[in-house]
Amino acid sequence: MSVATVGKIGIGLTVSDVSGQKMKKVNQVPYDATIGELIQELSAQMQLPQNDVVGRPLKYQARLDREARHLQPFERVGEALRNGDNVMLQPNVDAG
């Protein structure tokens, strides 16, 4: 999936990082894309850190503001999101 070069049908979103300092408006996100694909594409486009401070790979999750919940990677964009939604990408934190 390429959010930048999708087809003519899709959803428009505003995506931010957990700090709110990085924001991106995306248009025409394909309805049949998974949330996992969306996270992967947008975290790279937004140049979010790929590793934590000790070098472990970071995994990101998406939080939907409208419903105040985390989206599951297997959910489909067209089923979980609405045009104009705000989504926040935040790293998963594993307590150790």
Largest sheet: 5 strands, mixed
Placed side by side, the strands forming the largest sheet appear as: 2-1-5-3-4
At the first level of CATH, what is the class? Alpha Beta
The CATH architecture comes to: Roll
Helix tally equals: 2
- Quote the distance from N terminus to C terminus: 33 Å
Could you explain how this protein is built, in words?
This protein is an alpha+beta fold and 96 residues long. The protein has one domain (3-91): Ubiquitin-like (UB roll). Helix content is 16%, strand content 30%. It is built from 2 helices and 5 strands. Strands 2-1-5-3-4 form a 5-stranded mixed sheet.
Can you describe this structure in just a few lines?
The protein is of the alpha+beta class and 96 residues long.
